Amino acid sequence: MKQFDTLYNPYHSQRNPVVAKKGMVATSQPLAAQAGLTIMQNGGNAIDAAIATAAALTVVEPTTNGIGGDAFALVWVKDTLYGLNGSGKSPESISIDKVRAAGYDEIPKYGFTPVTVPGQPGAWAELSRRFGKLPFKDLMQPAIQYAEEGYPISPVLAKFWERAAVRFKEAFEGTEFDHWFETFAPNGEAPKVGEIWKSQDMADTLRELAETECESFYAGNIARKIDEFSRAYDGYITKEDLAKYQPEWVDPISVNYRGYDVWEIPPNTQGIIALSALNILKHMDIEGKESTDTYHKQIEAIKLAFADGEKYIADPEYMKVTAEDMLGEAYAKERLKLITDQAGQPEAGEPKASGTVYLCTADEEGNMVSFIQSNYMGFGSGLVVPGTGIGLQNRGCDFNLDPESPNSLGPGKRSYHTIIPGFITKGKEALGPFGVMGGFMQPQGHVQVAMSTIDFELNPQTALDAPRWQWTKDKTVWVEKNFPHQIAEDLVKRGHNIEMKLDSSSFGRGQIIWRDPETGILYGGTENRTDGHIAAY
C-alpha cells in the first residue's frame, strides 16, 4: 500500500513518516510522547502508554488540557474495537431558569456556570482496570516528575500560554480566578520559551490520583476540595455530582468508505459529523486531491453534516434521532441531491426516526489506542481548584438555553462534545488510530485525513502536512496560507467566501499511526502545526 511507502510524497515535505516495529507514541508534546514510550519499554502495553502520555500532557501542555477535563478513547485489543465515553454530566442543581435569572442570555465561557463533571481521571482509571498491564500508580510517575521538577517551555506551547494570559487578564473579574494566575502566571505573565515551569500542587494531586486510582477525585479528598471551592462562589458542581460519575463503555459507530471502515465515538460527540460527510462523499466521483471539484464536494458535504449535527447531537438519552438514522444510506443519498456545482447554504435535514490534546499509541502485540482529552477553549473555565493545580473544564458552554433543543441545558446531562478520536480498519485488520484536535475543526480534519489516506494514498506524514481548509459558517471557508491559490480563486467563482489565514493554529493538530497488516511495521505522522513528536522503538 502506498500509505506505507516513505518515498511517496507529492508535497515534497521535508519530513517522512517515523517507522518502527516494537512500539510507538505520537502526540503534540515530545516530553509526553517520551513518557508513554518509557512506560511501554518498562513492560506496559499501548493502553498503559496512552494513560501515561495523557497524564503527562496535563502537565506539559496545560494550555489545551488538564486534570479537570473530559476524555474519549477508541481501543483496539485482540481484533476488537472498544469505545470509552469519558465525558461528565452537568450538575444536578443547574437549570435554564437559574442561568437566565443570573442575567445570561447564553451560557458564559468562564466561571462556574459552564463547569461540568470532569470525566478524564475516571477514564484513565477505567482504561487501566480493563486493559492495562502495569500498576496504575506507575503510569502517573512521569507526569508527577514533570510537575515536581519542572520542564522547559517549548515554542508553540509558549505562544498559546501567552495568548491565554493576555485574554484572561481582560476577561476575568472576581477572586475565584486568582488561583489560575497563581498557578499558570504567578508573576502576571505566561512562562517564556526555555523557561522552567513546575507546579507542586499538580504533582501532589497526581500522586493522590496514583495512590487512589483516581477515586479521590470523585469520592475523597479532591472531591471535597472541588466542592468547597464551588460552594464558596455559589457554583453548581458538588461532591454529590462527582460521586455519581462513571465513564461509559460504548459501541463505536462507523461508515464504510471505499472499502475501509472509519470509526468514531457515538453521540454525544461530533464524530458522527465526520461520518455523515464521508457517507455523502462516498457516492461522489472524486477526481484527485488538488482539484477544485474535490475541495468543493468536501466542503459542501461537511456543511450538510454540520447542519444535521448542530440540530441533532446531544446526550443520547435526549436525541430525537439515532446515529443509525443519521448514517442511513437512503438519507445520505437525499443529502447528496442538495450538492450542486455552486456553494450552498447549509440547512439541517430530517432523518427518519427509527484549546484539546490528541495522542495515539501502538505496541508490538497489536494493541492500539486513539485517545483525546480536553479542558475546552484552552485552559477551560479559568478556574483552578485551590491547592490542587486542577483547572476545571467549561464544556457546559456547548449547551444552549432553548428548552425545545435536545442539547438544551439541564441537570445531569452530557453536552454536545467537540473532541473525537478516530480509527480506521479494513476487513478484520486495523489500519490504526488518527485524530485532529481543534474544536469544530475536528470532524473536518478527520474527513480530510481519511480521504488523503484512502482516496489519495498519502502516507501518514504527508496526509498531515497537506494544506487544510475549514468551513466556519454559511459560505465562509478558511484556508491555510499554503493552500493552492488557483484553487482558492476557483472556489470563489463557485460561490464560496474564501479567507486565507496566516496563522495555522486554528486548522487542527493531528497525529496518525498506521500498522501494515502484512508486516506489523508501524508508520507514524505528527503535526507541523504544533510541537508534535513521535517516540518509537
TrEMBL record:
InterPro entries attached to this UniProt entry: GGT-like_enzyme, GGT_ssub_C, Ntn_hydrolases_N
Record Pfam families: G_glu_transpept (PF01019)
SUPFAM superfamilies for the chain: N-terminal nucleophile aminohydrolases (Ntn hydrolases)
Name used for this protein in its record: Gamma-glutamyltransferase family protein
Species, as recorded: Jeotgalicoccus nanhaiensis
